[in-house]
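Exercise 7. Given the encoded structure of a 107-residue chain, write a plausible sequence.
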């Protein structure tokens, strides 16, 4: 089990630091806000397929990544390109706000 966790964390770290267009969702399975956002992020994944990779980071299991990105509140969303943070927002966000953030940078 620990090997799976380490492999997932390494894979997520790689995607966040080298991915072309990446939306990171930092969440906790114990958070009501994160739970409410689950369907929104799933819809976002479908709409952005082939354009933006969505990386979901469980802050309870991937603490080093959460600490590296200074995640204090969840859910937190960070839009990155090649490791550069372009946009960051915390809290419950509708699909439209995520799409708007992506469109602002993907001109």
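Solution.
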């Amino acid at each position: 089990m620990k090997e799976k966790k380490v492999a997932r964390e390494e894979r997520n770290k790689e995607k966040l630091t080298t991915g072309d267009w990446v939306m990171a969702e930092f969440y906790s399975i114990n958070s009501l806000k994160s739970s409410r956002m689950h369907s929104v992020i799933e819809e976002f994944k479908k709409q952005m397929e082939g354009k933006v990779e969505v990386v979901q980071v469980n802050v309870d299991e991937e603490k080093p990544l959460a600490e590296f990105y200074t995640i204090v509140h969840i859910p937190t969303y960070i839009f990155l390109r090649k490791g550069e943070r372009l946009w960051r927002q915390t809290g419950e966000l509708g699909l439209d706000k995520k799409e708007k953030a992506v469109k602002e940078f993907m001109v």
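Remark. The longest strand covers residues 84-90. Students should compare their own answers with the one above.
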